[in-house]
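Give me structure tokens for this 305-residue protein.
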Amino acid sequence: MQDSAFEMGDVKVFLAVASAGGFREAARVSGSSASALSDAVRRLEAQLGIRLLNRTTRSVVPTEAGRALMARVTPAMREIDAALRHVVGLGDRPAGSLKLNVPISAARLILPQIVPAFLKAYPDIRLEIMTDETFVDINAAGCDAGIRYDERLEQDMIAVPIGPRIQRFASAASPAYLSARGRPTHPSDLLSHTCIRSRFAGRSVTPWEFEREDEILRVDPTPQLIVQAGGGSDLGVAATIEGLGIVSLFETWLQPHFDSGALEPVLQDWWPSFPGPFLYYSGRRLVPTPLRAFIDFIKTRREGG
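Here you go.
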């Protein structure tokens, strides 16, 4: 190693190029030139005395040393970024960016009651919402926090309740479908009905669960239509309204269609309840000021009613 005084900008360039998989893509994202990025990486390699990237005409791939550097430096860079954002937010009003990773159900059913009021209260905060139904490492995804249900929370995370504390899954069908096929009176009746099911990407279709008093039943009706949970749920609801079968979904997702009469509740006495979602974030890093403002905001709303 020729010099211990490294230019942090060169390290950031290396991380950007390695993550983008090439100089051109990194240049497009950063707004810099590919040649300038290449010079920065060469400068860093010269200081370290070791090659960090294997370059070909088709690809740019980190060497073993490059991968090791990425693994050690990336978390540190995130901490530096969080610290800088924290300092920026130490003025009279919290400012800076806040990035949340949330399931589509939360973006659709919970955040509309929170986000507008939050942004009006904190006009200097820029909020970015990423919707994702898969298990996500929020730190690796570059997010400050996420929203998930208890069984899907990452380990070693601080969790803060957000939204309704008790929710229910509801079953529904169109009046026309129920008039033609009959109204189920027991969950086992669904086995003889056409059902519209959903599943998460890469996972199997899970049985529907029903509960009444101390009795819990699981049924696995054969679906005519399967949609991806979250992103495809509105399609499933539309098919249900058109009379194609029975659907099971968040009660609050279906409530507008109950109110309009487009759908009727099915097996309402058997609808299962479950705890509401949580906002979660790492307890091992400095909490950015915009995230702290958001946490305090939702806590105040909850305590206020």
